Amino acid sequence: MKTVAMRLVSLLLILQVAFFVYGQGRRLREQQQQQQQQPCDEYYVAEEGDTLQTISVKCNNIFILEDNPQIDDSDDIGPGTVLYMRQP
Predict the structure, then answer these.
(1) 57-62 long-range contacts, Cβ below 8 Å, gap at least 24?
(2) CATH architecture of 40-88
(3) What pTM does this model have?
(4) Residue 59 half-sphere exposure toward CB, CA atoms < 13 A
C-alpha cells in the first residue's frame, strides 16, 4: 500500500513540476512576443554591444542604414550613437 501511495505522490509531484515549467515557458514566449511587437522610439541610442542587425531586430526596422546617412560603415556603431527610427 505504501508503494502505491509513494508512486501516486511521485506522479503528482512530476505533474506539478511539468505544469510549472510549461507555464513559465508560455509566459516567457508571451513576453518575447510583446517585446517584438513594440517598436522603438523615434530615436534610438545605441548601447554597448549593439549592432545594426541586433537593433534592426529589436526595433523591427530594416531601414536603419537607409534612414541614417551619417553612418558610413555598418560596423561603426558605438555606444551613444543616435539613430533615427522610421515609424510604421
Answers:
(1) 59/85, 60/36, 61/85, 61/86
(2) Roll (3.10)
(3) 0.55
(4) 24
